[in-house]
TrEMBL record:
It comes from marine sediment metagenome. This is Uncharacterized protein. Residues 100-130 are annotated as: Disordered.
Length: 248
């Protein structure tokens, strides 16, 4: 009987266009701390243990005046990234739900999933599925980006001159995310006193907006947090309630 088993997780990224041409086929960084937590939560049947969304951003490279491209190191919780388990993309601009057991598979702010192929849960199409290959198991996450996604981008084929097509929807970084922490996280949580407000009260925050907060707890050091409010809240008119910002 083996008392110790060493596991290896290898990330790989493959991008294919509509003609079937392979545009990218290379290894992709893995966040070791967060991957270990996901595996541990899965074995413990705790919340937040499966891949929920794929996110895209445009902060992975720096282009100077001479058009020299500098590739930034991935935010994988290892130096120079000091964010540990809170690591994120440098600048996320779009994401889609990839959990094919979710009724909102293929959806995200600015998405148009009408052109997606059919998704058969854990079998084919957009979604997440696993395959056993001897002692190795492979997890495949598939996302389809349609020509109109994200919405409000330039219509590339119709723009002139060509420079007009260079917009913020040029992706150079990709990341996978779980659903996020539940209202009571298994890794611990803090209560922040917001006065006499209840979880059903309106925060007054605008939807689909990035907010920066500074919080000091019991005279301790100031902690800076950033949240992005959802497209619509749980209020009767879509208002963002206090209960909506707990998991953010």
């Amino acid at each position: 009987m083996r008392e110790t088993i060493h596991y290896k997780v290898d990330g790989h990224l493959k991008i294919i266009d509509d003609l079937g041409q392979v545009l990218v086929d290379k290894h992709n960084a893995v966040h070791p701390q967060n991957m270990a937590r996901v595996i541990s939560r899965s074995l413990s049947n705790e919340n937040n243990f499966f891949i929920h969304a794929m996110a895209f951003g445009n902060g992975g490279t720096i282009v100077d005046a001479a058009f020299t491209i500098t590739y930034r190191t991935p935010n994988d919780g290892q130096l120079p990234d000091t964010a540990a388990w809170e690591s994120r993309l440098y600048n996320e601009t779009y994401r889609e739900i990839v959990d094919d057991s979710n009724i909102n598979i293929g959806e995200g702010e600015g998405s148009d999933s009408s052109g997606d192929p059919p998704s058969v849960e854990h079998v084919s199409g957009p979604g997440v599925r696993s395959t056993e290959i001897g002692l190795t198991s492979e997890v495949e996450i598939e996302v389809v980006l349609n020509p109109g996604e994200p919405s409000s981008q330039f219509l590339t084929d119709d723009q002139s001159p060509a420079e007009a097509t260079e917009s913020d929807f040029t992706f150079d970084e990709i990341g996978l995310y779980t659903t996020g922490l539940p209202n009571v996280a298994t890794s611990g949580f803090q209560d922040v006193n917001v006065g006499d407000k209840l979880d059903v009260d309106d925060t007054g925050l605008a939807p689909s907006t990035l907010f920066d907060f500074e919080i000091t707890v019991d005279g301790g050091s100031t902690q800076s947090i950033t949240i992005t409010t959802p497209v619509s809240g749980s209020g009767s008119g879509g208002e963002i309630l206090y209960s909506d910002i707990i998991p953010l």
